[in-house]
Amino acid sequence: MIYQRLFKGIERFGATRTSIAEMAFKCEPGRITETVILAPVWEPTIFSAHTDSIIPIVENSIRRLYEISANGEKITFLRTGPGAPSVAHAVFALSCTPCKNVIFAGSVGGLVDGQDVGDIVVPEYSVCGEGASRYITEGNLKDSDCFGEKYYPNQDIYKNLIAAAKVVTSGNKAALHIGKTFSVDNIFAEFAHLEEILQMGCDSIEMETSLFFKAAEVSGLKAGAVFLISDNSFGGKAIYTARDQADKDSREFSRDHIIPRIILETVKNT
């Protein structure tokens, strides 16, 4: 299996599971809980209105760790920094800790009509448009082009996220969409290729989850993702286009109130 191959590659230079986790997180592996909320950019303060406490574990590092207490349960919040490679590095390091479940939280760009800023997306799958997945695929690097491959979340977490999102979005302005998401390496360059991405059957775009799902599967971790729509290129609200105050308010409300509730409800049922 590829996971064993990857570990043999790193262990031959003296690494251990403990040293891998400690280098990545700057704390003892045992500080990581069974379920982890992973966010490339967002801070744990998005959970402030929905938790009993948020305690810093490690803040002076590239990857920042916090312990959230909610519903009588402790949950690790991990801010990785943006980009698929950074997220995958964190996922592999999490596999060296007590972590078993990882829920990704982030933003996504809408690509079709009916997707409004502040709406919620739970991806059914993510299509690989990034280059790092080839490093965690069987075979030689030059023969392991994964472009266009679909990578899937764990089905239990996926179903729990959808169930939670249906409850939380009910009665709110935010609508729920089931996503067919494309993961891209470069935001600036994506716009010249959006029509081709649409032809691949995708309806949303972001940077991390194809590799996130693949790395979690390889590592034996159960993973799922939930996004909020931050922009819509074909709706006149592209990421480089000024969005109005109503859009900003919708995005912030979903980030600070809808996404946290969806995740915490999912954690209860995972």
Automatic annotation (TrEMBL):
Biological process terms in GO annotation: nucleoside metabolic process
Signal peptide: none
Pfam families: PNP_UDP_1 (PF01048)
Name of protein: Uridine phosphorylase
PANTHER family referenced in this protein's UniProt entry, alphabetically: FI09636P-RELATED (PTHR43691:SF11), URIDINE PHOSPHORYLASE (PTHR43691)
One Gene Ontology term of the molecular function aspect: uridine phosphorylase activity
Domain called Nucleoside phosphorylase: residue spans: 58-235
InterPro entries: Nucleoside_phosphorylase_d (IPR000845), Nucleoside_phosphorylase_sf (IPR035994)
EC number(s) per entry: 2.4.2.3
GO cellular component, one term: cytosol
Source organism per UniProt: Treponema primitia (strain ATCC BAA-887 / DSM 12427 / ZAS-2)
Reactions this protein catalyses: uridine + phosphate = alpha-D-ribose 1-phosphate + uracil
